[in-house]
Amino acid sequence: MRGENIVDDRVWIKKTHWPLILPQALPFFSHKVICVVRNPLDIFPSLVNLGHTFSHCAKLPFDHHVENAERWDKYVRMMSKVHSEYFERMMGDCVEKGMNTIYMARFEDFIANPEEELDKVFRFLLDLDTLEGTNIQRRIKQVVGQKDPSQFYKLKPETKIPNSQAHKYTKEQIDCIKKDNAHFLTYFGYTNGPENEENPTAFFNFDEVEENDFSVFNNFRKENVKQMDRALELSKDPEKAKTLTYDNNNKETCLDTKALMEPKQGLASA
After folding, report:
1. Which residues, in sequence order, are bridge partners of residue 36?
2. Average pLDDT, stretch 105-111?
3. CA distances from 23 to 20, 81, 94, 259 (A)
């Protein structure tokens, strides 16, 4: 995207792929993180399209999961491991170690409730309890209210339809993703909740036989409240705020996806 590789003071928000190793990525600094998550069943096919077309809006002229079923199966199992490790590192640094303040936003919430989600994001960015009466509140309402808001690129028809790619997976592939990403799926509310409470984003189901820690169900929302309070507190005492430097070439802190593909690492596709 335009401006993606600009990481100095000319930009306020930097789009990165940290903590993935990217040899050509420039080091960047940050004192806040916005992490956007999405249902893995929709992410994996999207990455296949991007990898083959180098475009966010183009689609392959064939169904990868049908025409290349064996390769698709290996890809799903590999990506399941990468996805799990990616968020383990992200959450470990920002939540468990508290190295940086973080706001976690779900793609599905941006689609279902864009004004509410944008309000939260900008309160986090601007260190404000409320956006009431601000210009950014006016702009959010203005943009959300547009019938045809401006876009950087044309979205694929299925992009705004949650779980639209689920039909591309076999039961065995779904089970693999559930096993590798049980904590992530529950933490971000992509599973059935405790006592099967109603949940519109329950794209994965854990029955009573399967082990799953439902105590963390939708916990990202509680953590967001804590992180926003922390950001407000730090804004009152800037000397306590940390500005961290990130380097996508640091093999000690970043995730090397090639290592996850190697059989000797014990993480190869089954």
Report:
1. 105
2. 95
3. 10, 21, 23, 15
CA separation for the pair 195, 255 (Å, rounded):
36
Phi first, then psi: what are they for 105, rounded to 5°? -115, 135
For residue 58, CA distances in Å to 52, 63, 68, 168, 234 come to 9, 13, 19, 18, 42
Residue 1 has a pLDDT of: 59
pTM for the full predicted model: 0.87
The pLDDT assigned to 267 comes to 33
Nearby residues of 251 by Cβ (< 8 Å), 6 or more positions away: 21
Q: 129 in helix, strand or coil?
A: coil
d(CA 24, CA 22): 6
Tell me the residue ranges of DSSP E strands in 15-169: 28-30, 32-37, 101-106
Pairing of strands 244-246, 101-106: unpaired
